[in-house]
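2024-03-11 09:14:02 DEBUG pipeline.ingest accepted 1 chain
2024-03-11 09:14:02 DEBUG pipeline.ingest length=146
2024-03-11 09:14:03 DEBUG pipeline.predict start
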Amino acid sequence: MHVGPKVWSGSLVSRNDPWVVQSNQDHIRVSSWLNQNTRLEDLVICHWNIGWLLQCRTADPMMSVAWDGMTTFTYEKGLPQERFRYPANIREAKYFVLTDIDRIWTLGQPNVSILFNEQTLAAWHPVFQSGGVLVLARPNFAPPAR
């Protein structure tokens, strides 16, 4: 009987499995939908694992926390707004994208739950989903004045 490495059987589970994208196809479908439903000046709050695929303004949820003047992971000393190229303000975002990594890690980082929680996102409504990636739209979205 020949036994190969577990990776050949698809049964190898590494310690970092929860931290990696669970479905590339879900991310591609969501980014494609977002690119069809945003303009260059629109802001989408999303993890960088989707943000790099978008053709609009993006900010990670933790950048939004820093924009609001609070500290969080990687921004332990805060970050002045003048360091941003554009506002990372959740109140100006067209969409908020919730991915697997956000559910298991991002939302648990310091001060993130102050901006991103059931109360603050209650009026946001789901507009697209692929697998574990959910896109929420801000109610009555109007693009910020130029």
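2024-03-11 09:14:41 DEBUG pipeline.report The radius of gyration is 17 Å.
2024-03-11 09:14:41 DEBUG pipeline.predict end
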